[in-house]
């Protein structure tokens, strides 16, 4: 199996910023806005001494939607795909497609969508 080369444009910072931009676009289409984890959020009731480790398959994207007033998770979108050389060569379209696939499962549809 040939090794896959990861392009230099796929830095963690660049990937994170592109995911935020794609997520913001999806949220705004639904009349919501992207916020940041000010104050964090937690499960209820809080279990400060509990640690849960969940292994994820490579190519998994998790998107959490949090009610900022309640600081509670209200929805989690999870999509899993295969990382191919084509997706590595076309990182931004691959990330856009993954975010769109996650939000396709979101209960609030974009304005104008049926």
3D architecture notes:
It is a single chain. With 114 residues, the protein is an alpha+beta fold. The chain contains three helices and two strands; from the N terminus they run αββαα. The chain has helices at 12-29, 85-89, 91-103; strands at residues 60-67, 72-80. Strands 1-2 form a two-stranded antiparallel sheet. Helix 1 (12-29) runs parallel beside helix 3. The longest helix has 18 residues, at 12-29. The radius of gyration is 16 Å and the shape is globular. The mean pLDDT is 79.
Short description:
With about 110 residues, this protein is an alpha+beta fold.
Would you spell out the secondary-structure blueprint of this structure?
Elements lengths: L11 H18 L30 E8 L4 E9 L4 H5 L1 H13 L11
Antiparallel strand pairs: 1-2
Question: Which tags fit this structure?
Answer:
alpha+beta, two-stranded antiparallel sheet, 114 residues
Strand order of the largest sheet: 1-2
Helix content: 25-40%
Sequence of secondary-structure elements: HEEHH
Mean pLDDT: 79
Q: In DSSP terms, counting alpha (H) and pi (I) runs of 4 or more, how many helices?
A: 3
* Unreliable residue runs: none
Query: What would you call the quaternary organization?
Result: single chain
The biggest sheet, with number of strands, parallel, antiparallel or mixed sense and barrel status, is: 2 strands, antiparallel
Based on secondary structure, the structural category is alpha+beta
Please count the beta strands (DSSP E, at least 2 residues each).
Answer: 2
Query: Any idea what the radius of gyration is?
Result: 16 Å
Inertia-based shape: globular
Distance between the termini: 44 Å
